[in-house]
Amino acid sequence: MAPKKKQQQKHKSSSSTSSSSSKPKPQSSTGPKLQISAENENRLRRLLLNSGRSTTADPLHEDNINNNLTKAQKAKKLHSVYEKLSCEGFTDDHIERALSHLKESATFEAALDWLCLVLPSNELPLKFRSSTAGLPNDGGSVGIISTARDDWAPLPDSSVATAHEMEEISIKSKVQRKVDTLDSFQQSQADWIRQYMEQQEEDEYESWEDTAVDEAPEPRNYEIICEEYHSARLQAINAKERKNKKGQEQSGQIIRKLKQEMAALGISVDTLAAEFESRHRVVENKNIEDVIGGEDGCMESTVEQDVSLSVPSQDGSVADEDSGDIELGDMFLEDSSSDQVLPPEIVELQKKEKMKELTSEKNLEKLEGIWKKGDPLKIPKAILHLLCQRSGWEAPKYNKVQGTRDGSSYTVSVIRKASGRGKNRKVGGLTTIQLPTPGEAFETAEDAQNRVAAYALYQLFPDLPVHLMMADPYASLVLQWLEGDLSGDVKNTEVDRRAGFVDSLLKADVPDAVLSEDLLDTSGQTDSQISHAQEDKSSRDAGINKIAESTDYHKQVESSYLKKQQESKRKMKKYEDMLKSRATLPIAELKGEILRLLKDHDVLVICGETGCGKTTQVPQFILDDMIEQGHGGICNIVCTQPRRIAAISVAERVSDERCESSPGSKDSLVGYQVRLDSAR
Ligand SMILES: Nc1ncnc2c1ncn2[C@@H]1O[C@H](COP(=O)(O)OP(=O)(O)OP(=O)(O)O)[C@@H](O)[C@H]1O
């Protein structure tokens, strides 16, 4: 909160400008400028829309916007919320409970609030779990000043929760209370911010409308597209022959649309042309001869070239015939598969397309230096070793799976380097991979290791045609996994479930009884109201358990690795010196108490002088304790800072104190994420 003084000065100097303007002008250089992170902006938006004068108007405003959305738009919105929550690690059952409660007005934030408030900590995804509360502390420069509120109860309504949040902020932050509330700003500025936020909110909803209106139509039969494509091509040739520019343009447009339609299905025009020509070669030749009297080949290719060069890609640029179509296809493939059930022949073509792309010359070149066509085939272990080496990773390690009675089964662990920057950044760190059928055992250790290595190759290098350089039976195994992936069975089941749920929700048939029920009761009563959720519960549960088991296993491996690493670090002189200097900070005295309280309570408020060690030390107390107890693999700590410089500097300091090279590096447990940059 350091920059408040500056902000207030800024407000003062610009107050006349902003009060004279009734319309929000976010870009104006004279108006107040908001520079906050996306996360804080969302939080502020929620606070503002539910605060002060607007408390009566804004919920209605939100409702009004919701009422104005069509069913398709609402469905799209709900799908997106469902998907985002799923990505955050919530189970489908939990998501459906939250959405059933919030109904059509559900937003991602509201659903997240609801889930975190209602679900018991141990049912939340790991990163949302906590364990803590506290005791009054007497004296010293650092004190634990508050525990979880005794009167706290989950609030199903997110707007009420937000109001309480504000109240809590004003009670707990003893200093500068006024600055934290909107009413402390000059009235005109408060109005400006409110209007700005409302405008943003409207834009957001409008974008829902836009995207929903642009919904892709049902995929058409492949044969029909083929026929249309062929006749459009003939028309184009014909028009060109007769120098009919208009006719040429019209057929060009039809061909462009058909190409886009194919691209949307993930099929390149090459496939379309090849497929069709192979089936209709005789007819085509005859037709073309009839139309242009023997100059077909040359003429046709000229027209085709003209047309293909002008096919615009999604971003408005001109698509390249060879590579552009494939990329375009991939981009659309995601959309089409998530929203539509494709006809089997299209799925088949998509598979072919994907395999063609995977084994393309471009991808084969990526294996240069390791293998080329004609070289002898290798075993998966050797390939994995080579590819890890080339990526600058450590050599893969094979570990026997505990408890395999007959034969053997192995996991393989790889420590990957973080790579890329910003959006393209790929997280590094330890990855432990095991076969999709974990219990399976094999006769020899070598065979077991090769199988898991093949699976690791398939998982870690999905864009390399590793099966081409691999000896059987492992190459066939990889092909099977690829086939399974391409058929999209799993995805479709998920999509069906979500679509079914969103549909049932929008039919507004969820009886009010569900909503009035005690939502804190997680015994399954609420679930029983949602008939859809019951249908394949047992098979889903089995799936979830399986995932949980394998996740547990990976976490265990990571935990023991971290423990060993920590033990060896303790022997380092530099680390020892750092520990000594950290021990002189005022907060060090409270380490034991903080850890003890965190074990039993969900919320702990620590208050202390600047520089006493709250930011750099408390997270390390928790991390070190978790590592020492062998739970490092499940420990995720998030520490927020109000400014990007502070965030980076704290991360660097903590990384330094832990004797790591830098945040986000291979050996580092510390990272940071600020807008447009991250090191993780
Ligand atoms: N980048 C740094 N370089 C050197 N020392 C640092 C750095 N950051 C923190 N420290 C040291 O660590 C101590 C604890 O800092 P820390 O940021 O944890 O305090 P804090 O209690 O969180 O302070 P504040 O309330 O201002 O956030 C500081 O007193 C300082 O000695």
Automatic annotation (TrEMBL):
<feature type="compositionally biased region" description="Basic residues">
    <location>
        <begin position="1"/>
        <end position="13"/>
    </location>
</feature>
<dbReference type="GO" id="GO:0016787">
    <property type="term" value="F:hydrolase activity"/>
</dbReference>
<feature type="domain" description="ATP-dependent RNA helicase DHX29-like UBA">
    <location>
        <begin position="77"/>
        <end position="129"/>
    </location>
</feature>
<dbReference type="InterPro" id="IPR027417">
    <property type="entry name" value="P-loop_NTPase"/>
</dbReference>
<dbReference type="Pfam" id="PF24385">
    <property type="entry name" value="DSRM_DHX29"/>
</dbReference>
<dbReference type="InterPro" id="IPR056890">
    <property type="entry name" value="UBA_DHX29-like"/>
</dbReference>
<dbReference type="InterPro" id="IPR056328">
    <property type="entry name" value="DSRM_DHX29"/>
</dbReference>
<dbReference type="GO" id="GO:0003723">
    <property type="term" value="F:RNA binding"/>
</dbReference>
<feature type="compositionally biased region" description="Low complexity">
    <location>
        <begin position="14"/>
        <end position="33"/>
    </location>
</feature>
<feature type="region of interest" description="Disordered">
    <location>
        <begin position="1"/>
        <end position="39"/>
    </location>
</feature>
<protein>
    <recommendedName>
        <fullName>RNA helicase</fullName>
        <ecNumber>3.6.4.13</ecNumber>
    </recommendedName>
</protein>
<dbReference type="Pfam" id="PF24899">
    <property type="entry name" value="UBA_DHX29"/>
</dbReference>
<keyword id="KW-0067">ATP-binding</keyword>
<feature type="domain" description="ATP-dependent RNA helicase DHX29 DSRM-like">
    <location>
        <begin position="378"/>
        <end position="474"/>
    </location>
</feature>
<keyword id="KW-0378">Hydrolase</keyword>
<dbReference type="GO" id="GO:0003724">
    <property type="term" value="F:RNA helicase activity"/>
</dbReference>
<keyword id="KW-0347">Helicase</keyword>
<keyword id="KW-0547">Nucleotide-binding</keyword>
